[in-house]
Amino acid sequence: MAMWSDHPNEECGVFGLYAPGEDVARLTFFGLYALQHRGQESAGIAVADGTAIRAHKDMGLVAQVFDETKLGPLRGDFAIGHTRYSTTGSSTIGNAQPFTLESYLGPLALAHNGNLTNATELRLELLKRGVGLTSTSDTEVATMLLLAPEGPTWRERIEYFMDRAEGAYSMTLLMRDALYAVRDPLGLRPLCLGKLGENGWVVASESCALHTIGAELVREIEPGEVLKIDAEGVHTILRRPASRQALCLFEYIYF
Hints:
The chain has a single domain (13-254), classed as 4-Layer Sandwich (Glutamine Phosphoribosylpyrophosphate, subunit 1, domain 1), CATH 3.60.20.10. The protein has helices at residues 24-34, 62-65, 68-71, 119-128, 138-147, 154-164, 207-212, 250-254, and strands spanning 13-18, 42-48, 53-59, 78-84, 99-103, 106-116, 167-174, 179-183, 192-196, 200-204, 216-220, 225-230, 233-239. By secondary structure, the protein is α+β, with helices and mostly antiparallel strands. The longest helix has 11 residues, at 24-34. 48% of the residues are buried. Keywords: Glutamine amidotransferase, Glycosyltransferase, Transferase. One of its GO terms (molecular function) is amidophosphoribosyltransferase activity.
């Protein structure tokens, strides 16, 4: 059994897309391909069609994990994707992303770049509540933390998560009819917003992923900002910035 580690263990690539009428899985594939330098251990895509979420993930590079047979069934208007890189901890399919599960508010998929510095504390808290955890990833902890409160909306659950979580995170959250983008209050991990055509919107760790699929960079998502993207457009639903900003230095060195 892999041992849980609370050391920083991820510097990944995240991607999210709303593009009605487009092949969102294929566009996400190309977006992840552009983010391949951020993670080479595993890759995954989850797609929502308004009713359900379908996903595929596996160990390996983006081009190794996905081919026509894997992309074909992933149909919908929304998608998120992830490439994983870890410096410590286990590199297994159990830690590959996006994480997907069913919840009281419907299906959920989550992709995360960063690490929660209080993940061990949060993990023990969840285990004491009887929550079963199946991986050594702090992303699973983040997913379960989002489901912990009884708030009736995802906004309330995301706000609860931001109140409890410490450390670095840029996340994309996929529901059956909406996409959320979340950046930590310090802005330690990057996340940007792009426009695709007339009705499409994209979020990604780096703008190179936007350009790869023909999207235009709109702006950086602000530290502590939460965006909701759906058929009605893009809306900032929450702002929780810290008193200072602190983009990780390694973003300039390695990426």
